[in-house]
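Async update (no meeting this week)

Hi team, since we skipped the sync, here's where things stand on the single-chain job. The sequence we agreed to prioritize is pasted below, unchanged from the tracker. I ran it this morning and attached the output directly underneath so nobody has to dig for it. Comments welcome in thread, and please keep replies under the output.
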Amino acid sequence: MANGQTSTNALTEKLRLRLDEDQLTNCMRCGFCLPACPTFAETGLEAESPRGRIALMKAVADGIMEPDQAFEDQMNHCLGCRACEPACPAGVQYGQLIEQARDAIEDHKEHKTWVKVTRKTAFKAVFPHQQRMKWVGRGLQFYQKSGLRTVAHATGAMKLFPKHMRDMEKILPDASGQGVVEKIGDRHPAKGEKVATVALFRGCIMDVLFTETNIHTVDLLTAAGFEVVIPRQQNCCGALHAHSGEAEGARDLARRNIKTFKDAGVDYIVSNAGGCGAILTEYDHLLHEDPQWRDDAVWFADRVIDISDLLVRAGRSLDFSQGQQAGEPPVTITYQDSCHLRNVMRSADAPRKLMRSVEGAQYVEMKNADRCCGSAGIYNITQPVMAGQILDHKMEHVEATGASYLLTSNPGCLLQMKHGIEEQGLGKQMKAVHIVDFLHERMQK
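Output:
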């Protein structure tokens, strides 16, 4: 009992030291965040809301309650979509608080051996190393192309895995052992008069599962007048680390990326993945206590921009009329917001403006398009029940649009939407596509 109490006291102290007291006290308990929160919408429980979770954090920091397993579960049950932040009149940075809480919990928690090994492998041995991610891509490619995948399904071997993992395996795109740099090189001149020089953040998952999307991103940017460089030494953005209680790992990755992109001397750093873009724009906060990197982190964060925003704000107008035949009826398209693109990078209008500029496409706004789809990084793997409930409600709104194309701006959202389409049997009439790939297909070359 004494050991348990000592352990609880230690976690309480870690939470007290790491939680931002100003942000905790800034919450006015007004409740504006409640209707914006997906988990509160699903359960109606106060503890499942941002206001409720902040109250729990403050109670622990003030020594009023112990950080027991129920407290940890609530911190981990949050999607981290940050829809509460635009809704908050006091400007509470909830995303920072939830990451601080998870970091303290993770620093304290004693995992089972297999969990420790899995986390160490993912967060320290694989994601931080771009070349190792390429080997992951090659392994997946071999599994998909060699016949192993067919054998795994035919023999029932996939039944050894939980249903939600089997479902995700079905909709994985074709993996690649070569990323965008290996396929097309690292420097691409602007077409016509140059507007600016930009660097593409290629990502880690993006570069092995969505290599073609990265290539199409380069094509769109050069056509719009941007010279594109793709720094070879860049690495993972650190988002999964930050969201999973591995804050120091995220800071290490941030330092490496900052140096790499600063050396490139570019006007903008372009992201085509909302989840990556959001953490990149917050490198200044991530390193605000590091005097050696603080100023460079601000330099970096100020230059990060989503491709849709850059094309709309600074690029030359593009002609999206490729493939449209005279008299052909328009194709209906809709859009699922990436939570981090909308709520952190505050970009919602630019993707819609681009979609409305496509000839022969009729844009239909989806009800609650700004509500999280349940992907949330690896949330759909770690919290499959809640993620499934959220996705089921999302797909009701998706189907109501009658769209042929469901577009989004983030790889996790895209996979989740593909999964939803598969689950609902909508594959014959609807296709989930990254907005970059849709625009590229219709751009006059």
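Quick observations from my side:
The CA atoms of residues 210 and 310 lie 20 Å apart.
The radius of gyration is 22 Å.
Reply here if anything looks off.
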